[in-house]
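Practice set, problem 2.
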Amino acid sequence: MSESLEHWTEAQLRTLSTDEYDFQEFKASPYLGTPQGIAQNFRERMSKQISAFANGSGGRIFIGITDEAKIDGGVPVNLRGGGMRAWLEDVLPKLVTPPLRSCNIYEICSDASEDSLILPGHAIYIIDIKESSSAPHQALDLRYYLRIAGKSRPMSHVHIQDVLRRTRTAQLTCHRFSTYGKIEIDKSDSRGPVAAVGFRFHISNQSTVMAQHVGVELSIPRDLLPKKLRQQILNNSEIAYTQQPGRMLFFRYHHHPIFPGQELYVLMVYIGIHKSNLSYLKTGAAINWKIYADDAQPAEGSINPLAYSQVQQAIQIIEQHSYKNPQKNTPTK
C-alpha cells in the first residue's frame, strides 16, 4: 500500500494509477449519492467494502473516481446537514461488526483552476481504512469480506481462521535499541585496552491485545563480548545465558503483562571493542534480537553496532591507542 497522505489535492488525484488493487478501489459519484440524495443501497454496498479492507491489509476507497481513474465531477457536499464528510465519519465505522476503531475521511474540493474537473459545491471522498486488529469485521449482510485480486469477495472459512489467528495475539517489536552511559575503558585486558559500550533494549506492544507472557533474547557475537562484560550483563539475576557457535545469547522473561501501546525497557547489554576485533566489527558484526509473546510468531531483527556514533567513537579511541602504542617485536636471542 502506498504511503499515507494527510492532505490530498486534485492534482494528486489526477496521477492515480488506472488499476484497482487489493488496497485501492474506485467508485463513481452515484455510488454515494446524487443531487436527489444518498444512494438507496449505499450503506449495504459500502459495508462490504469496509469489511473487505479492514479484514485485509487496509486500503483506500475513492468516491467520485471512475473505473478509468477519471474524476467525474464529484459528490454534492450538502447531501446531509453538517456536510458529507462529517456524516461519513459518523456512519461508516458502524457499518461493520465490530465497528471500526478508526476511519479517516478526506474531502477534496475543486482547486479553483480553469481546468478543474471537480464541480463547484462537489467533492471527491477518500475513505482510508487501516488493517484492523479487531478483525474479522462482519458486513450488514452478515457475511465477512476480503480483498482478493482487486475485488471485495466473501471470505472462506480458511480466510476467517487466518484473520482470527492474526488478531488474537499481541504483536511486540523492538521499539528502541540505544546506547546508554559513557564509554568505559578497561586497561586490564591482556589484549590491550577495551572500550565498553552499553545498550538498552526497549520493546513495545503495537497491537490491541495484551501480552501475558513475554521473553526477549539478544544474541551477541562472542568476539564482541569479553569475559568481564559478560559477567556485568549477568549481574542481573533475571537474565539467563546460553552459548551457540560464535555467539552468546542472553534471555530475560518479563514477569508482568504488557498492555496495548505500552513501551518499556527490558534488557541492558554491552559490547567490548579492542584491537583484536576491530576488523570483525567493521565487516558487519550484528546483534540479533528476538521477542516471544504468548502464542504469536516470534518477532526478530538485527542491529548493526556501527550505526551508533558512540561505537564509532570507541573505535577511534582504540585505533588512536594502537597508533600511539604499536606492539614492539621481542628481539630473538
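Problem 2, part (b): a different protein.
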Amino acid sequence: WNVPAYHFDPTGEYGARCPVVADPSHSNEVTFRACDHITAGRHSTELFVDAAVRFLETVSRSAPFFMSVALLAPHDPRTMPERFRSMVDPEGIALPANVLREHPIDTGALRIRDEMLAAHPREPVEIRRHIAEYYAMIAHLDHGFGRLVAALQARGVLDRTVIVVAGDNGLAVGQHGLMGKQNLYDHSVRVPLVLAGPGVPSGRRSDALVYLLDLFPTLCALAGVEVPPSVDGRNLIPCMTGDCAGGREVLYLAYADSIRGVTDGRHKLIEYACGATQLFDLSRDPLEMDDLSCRASSGPLLERLRQQVRRLALEWDDERHPAGRAFWARRADLL
C-alpha cells in the first residue's frame, strides 16, 4: 500500500525525492523518499496493473510491442485487500511435512530480516498464518493478471502475444525451519515458469533444467529476432516441443557467500561455507528431508556432484565475484 513510485523519466535519472516525516508522534524530522508521487490507498499490485492496462490501451494492433510487469507481490510485508485475505482460512492449512522449528545448519543468513518475520523457534499457528497470507496475496496477484489478459483481449492483440509468467525466487515460509529465500532448497530456487501464445505448444509440461536467463533467447526466437552474440541463455523452444536437448544437464546454485550447490534434476548437492553438506534424492524425497551425504553408499554420487560444483564454479567465473571468492576461501576442501 502507498508505494513510493515514479512517473516515467525519459532521462533515466529518476532523481526526484518526496519529503516524509517518518515518526510524527515523536519527531518533526523530515527525510526524503526516492519517488515523485504516492498513490494513497492503492495496493502495489493494483498500481502496477493499472499502469500496464493504460499502456495496453495505447498499443498498436499490428506493430510489435514488449511489456514487462514486475509486481512486488507476493513479497512481504504480505498485505492484500480483505476480500482476498478472507479467501484463505489459516486453520484449514495442512503444514508441509518438512516444516521444522529451526534449521539445523548455519546458512549464513539465519538472523537476517526475512528470518525474523516469525518467532524462533517456529510455531505451527504462526506458520499457518504466514502461509495463508502468502496464498491470499497470490490470489490478489492472479486477479491482477486476469485484468492484464482481459486488456490484451479487449485491444485485440491477445492471440498474437506471447505471455510469460515467471517468479524470481520461491519462499520457505516455515519449510526447513526457514522463512525466506536465502537457501538452495527447491521451495526457494524452483520457480514458476509458464509460457503461452503463438509458437508455444499448449498443454505441455517439461522437466528440463533451465535458468530464467534462458527466456531472452527464447523470446527472440518466438519473435523472429536474432539473438545477440553476447547472450548466455539457451533457446527453450526445443524443451517446449518435447526435445529436452534445449535444457541443461545440471544447474549451478548459489546463495551469497555462504551456500553453493548443483542439481541434475534427480539429485541435489548443497555445500555450506560453514563446512556442512547435504545430499538429496529428489525423485523419492521431493521435500528434501532425508540427507544422504553421510551414508557410505553415497560416496561415488557425492564425489560426482562435487566435481560438477567445481566445474560449474569455473564455468560461471564464481571466484571472480567477491561472494564466490569468500565462499571458496572457506571451502577450499572442495577444490
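Answer key, part (b): The first helix runs from residue 44 to 56. The beta strands are 4-5, 17-20, 31-34, 37-38, 163-166, 193-196, 251-255, 259-263, 267-272, 277-281.
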